[in-house]
Amino acid sequence: MDYVVERFHGRSLALAHSQEEIEELDLRDSNEKINDERKFVRRGTYRLRKNRLTPNIFQPDEALQTLTESTINKQRLIEEVTRKVKEAESKAQDLSINIQLKEQLIKSVYASTKDVKDTNEQYEQHIKTLEKEVDKAKHEYQDLQKTMQQIATKNTSEKSKLESEYRKKCDMAKARLESLQQKEKQYRELMNKLSGNSEKRIADLQAALFRMKQQHETAQKRIREETELKNKFEQDLVREQQRIQELTIQNEQQQKILKLKTEGLVAAQRKLRGAPNGNINDGTTTTMTTTSNFEVEMEKLVAERKELETLRDDVQKREELIQKRELLLNERTELETKKMRTSQVLNKSLKSVNEKLKTVDKQQPNHQMIREQLLKQKRLFTERLEQQDSVLTPSEERRLIEIDEAIEAIDLAIDYQNNIINKRERDVQQSIRASQGSDSPLFKIGQLSENESKELCRKLFEKVIDLKEEDNKNRREFDEIKSQLLEQTEIITELQSRIQTLTLDHDRRLTSIQQAHEEEKQLLLGQLQESSTQMKDLERDLYFYKHKTRELRKSMATSTTSALDTSTSSTTGVTRRKELNQNEDDFPTQLPTPRTAVQQHQPAPFLLKIGNRSNSAHQIQQDEIKKR
Description:
This protein has 628 residues and is an all-alpha fold.
């Protein structure tokens, strides 16, 4: 198709070129003839010749102008598309970074939830042990209260001393019970804080990740579409530029031909300068009156055109109403024909029944049964004929009534439109008669002289210039408003893109902060697990040292009893055993002091004599279990 169009275009260019050459030759021949003739006789055909020789190249090439405007628009569109592509690429890049950060955050949240589960299990074990210790402390406290009540009932000499001792023990047991309960409460609060709503948080993060992936896909799709559109615009721009080059070359060729034609035209005009002009009458006063009347008549013509347009609209409305009325009439005739056909069928059947009855009456009086059946049929048909209105269905009957009402309404509307149309036709005919008379502006223009017509043309030309200036002013205002609108739209798009970038940056920062928080959380959970293992080791060491201190104290007590006298040793041994037993009872209630890192790595001074702590402690625990 493009090839065929190009061939036709080339053929038209060749024909135009040949026609211009022929006209150029004719022009040269005419110039030679004019130079040969001495007497110039003005003929009426010169103006036609002048008009024929006046080329159309003086007017700007509209095709070239439209092509240049389209190229400018294409360049602007290409710039806008490139800007959109850059924005989409930056958005896609930011979204890809945010997607990676979200995925890392989800992985870290999964890992932290696993660590939280492990720590929660440890805390549950600690809470269970604390609950056991709390129950044990409650029982001890209750036993001490019972013993105090028993001591209060007794009347012994050491009542006050025993009461003070047991009161101290009760206070210590109460403080220990409160500390255990507080510790259990802290463990539970810490468990609740650690557990939190991890599942809900993971679901929210996954939903946000899904939304980001969708946005990334839409951004990639937009990039593809915009790049395709950009390539299309670039191809169109290249084609239009090639077309502009072709048109410029063609215009240059036409300008060369025009130069030759204008030379001949100038020579002919030089010879015409000495021709006599006709007489011109003065008519300035009449032109002023005609111009003022002409403006009034122009307004009347505009009003007549408006009336004609309204008349056309009314006629079209009337035609639509007539078409609608015809459709309703057709529908009504169909329903009436249906009703008529049913009534005709009933009449025919009734006639046949009457004939059968007559034949039965003529033949024999014994056919009583047949006669009764025929009479029943006759009564049935007569009832149907009487009820002809019920032949149609209820919906059809209702539709028939609606059609009748609609036809009446349409008839009224048609009458109203006919009245309006007749009135407007009369007004238009009167205005046409007035415009065709001697007082009409067209008749007055035809009766004007040459000078008056020139003055009128001058006035009209000035009015056209004023209208053109006003049009240019309105166009400039429109261009200013359009430029302001474009600036506002650019500002809005820039702000929207800025908001999008800020939201993406905010999301990125938030995810990085959450990632750092999860890493710190994992580190703290690891430290808690390490501290729990260290606590277990310290408890094991504490139990080992307690057992060894008991053994050493027992050995010290036996050595002191052998050195002292029997009398003094018995009294002092009893008091010392009481003190030792009291200290041994009070020692587990005291909290162990945590060792420093240096003390943890330093060996005990009696480690060589005692042996391995962990193994010996384990053996001691097994021995005590066996004894129990």
